[in-house]
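Before the break, one more example. Copy the sequence into your notebook; we will annotate it together after we see the structure.
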Amino acid sequence: MIQTGLIQSAHNDLLTDVAYDFYELRLATCSLNQRYVIPLLHIYKSNGNWNVEDDRKAHDATVSKLSWAHPEFGTMLASASFDHTVKIWEQTSFASNN
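Here is what the structure looks like once it is written out:
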């Protein structure tokens, strides 16, 4: 197996799940530190490097699972945690590509 890229982890703890979006341009990661991180693949701007698009404290306990919705529902990510909650996150605006 060949390593094709390296994503610097924004987590300071063990990862618990990773999930690609439908188009494989976003890879959400979650960890024991109650955060999820979404690095966005910038294919044309930075030669296929991953850059962090979103990083936030999502729950009050370990985030155990992530799942992207189908694109027909928009850019939505579900996160489940050991705090007995499931949260749905929706991207409402996009950063400028300038």
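The chain is about 0% helix and 45% strand. The chain has a mean pLDDT of 78. Try to locate both features in your own notes.
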